[in-house]
């Protein structure tokens, strides 16, 4: 293993020694208390089996119990496939002498629907809500193991945070897979720019969008949902190839059945998810995030997820890794390929193989498929002699660069896809994987806004037609829940196409779709200095030296602006408890940790 990566790993281990030890003691104690079926009273047991139509519990006590936590709904394309999964798994369970019940459902919202809407302010908080819902589903303490079904943005992180509270249980994740490719992401992006520029009408835009989002499965661009899926395989809590096998592929159904067999092996070995996911697994997650140029949301989520397992990761760890890990992927929005093209070129298995060959990722890890990340360099195929079975093939070790995947010897960029910016004003992250010049220095006057809508209206009035740095405040978790700000992408791209130098600074999020322009996001203000910036201040965003600064301005003499968000309507009132108790974004923006 690369010596500097090992140094970062040891630093995290040392920092986390007390919290990880406390976590392991907790799950070890619960191994002796769970499941509790034999100690339940007859009334409790009757309630357990009533929904299954069973009249006796004698036979069921012999079987292993598996609880499913599902994010199924038919509102979202990525989670609609889960409708049939439980019934299919239950049929297979009968053949394996297992008993399966759906233990609970978790909410799953789509940022693609709520973009720019008030409901977007619940998006980040839905992650911790999902964690709470997962805990409720498994709280009956009758299960020997569990299956978590989820794919998208906050759903997988929330499920994992919840599952780690039951770290004594073997748990496997099952995703839904991507939808087939519709129109190209390039055409979609150009159409959005045309609409923002007033060149086409809404009906024309809708027609194109429906060609892009057209069936069950995840969106095909490399945003937060698909970054989740890459990380799930690199960490080993779902089967190799499960991430990007198409939603409608016959291989998908066999992967689900294979997941059940893998879960049986984990139960036989008594390997709980909490002990399985060691520091090397978490390091692998950080490494593939950087190597793939994935979603900036995963910086927040990985910090929060790791804390649920007793590991204390911070932004500096990502920053130090980013100078070591090269960018090996070009998937839209930092390339033209979508995830289906990426998968066809070898996808996750090829990326992991290239990282292993360069000693840039850990091989010696426990996974749901067995020991060793090398298992994840193989891809699932239907057995030609028995179409009911899968076997895993080693991919062709092509050495030259493909459209979407590079080797470590000839990367797309020498550093990872993220850069962390500091200075006396604020610190935050910029996704640089899609930038033409990752070392650009932008000096321009500030234009301060306190809502996304204000920027859109200023754009419509053509007040932004000059070099400027947009400063969008009031978007932090404690103010309005830290919404995504994707509606800004097309207008800013239009301003770029006119030749203006444009950058964005905000304490909000832009996730996997950011990167076509310099966007300093997740900004954490220092001494309230970010909130002291005024219109016309000359800001320098120095990507080369990773610093944000002001020219000829004494912020100590200024008072920060006050922001009074609405926070009412569309359920936002109920989430006051989250806004009041949420931790800082550089600690995972969670309500669970002090």
Describe the structure.
By secondary structure, this protein is an alpha/beta fold. It has 21 helices and 16 strands. The longest helix is centred in the middle third of the chain and has 20 residues, at 250-269. The mean pLDDT is 91.
In short:
The chain is an alpha/beta fold and 594 residues long. Helices cover 36% and strands 14% of the residues.
Q: How is this fold's topology laid out?
A:
Blueprint lengths: L2 H13 L1 H15 L10 H9 L13 E7 L14 H11 L2 E8 L5 H4 L8 H16 L6 E5 L5 H10 L6 E4 L10 H12 L5 H11 L11 H12 L14 H20 L3 H4 L2 H14 L4 H12 L6 H8 L16 H6 L2 H11 L8 E2 L2 E2 L6 E5 L7 E5 L23 E4 L4 E6 L9 E9 L2 H9 L7 E5 L4 H4 L8 H9 L4 E5 L12 E7 L12 E5 L4 E4 L25 H6 L13
Helix pairs in contact: 4-11, 6-7, 7-14, 8-9, 8-20, 10-13, 13-14
Class by helix and strand content? alpha/beta
Task: Please give the largest β-sheet.
Answer: 8 strands, mixed
How many domains, in number, for the residues? 3
According to DSSP, the number of beta strands is: 16
Strand content: 5-15%
Residue stretches low in confidence (pLDDT < 50, at least 5 long) are none
Count of DSSP H/I helices? 21
Q: What integer value in Å does the Rg equal? A: 24 Å
Widest beta sheet: strand line-up: 9-10-14-13-12-11-15-16
Distance between the termini: 34 Å
Shape: globular
Percent helix, as a range, is: 25-40%
Mean pLDDT: 91
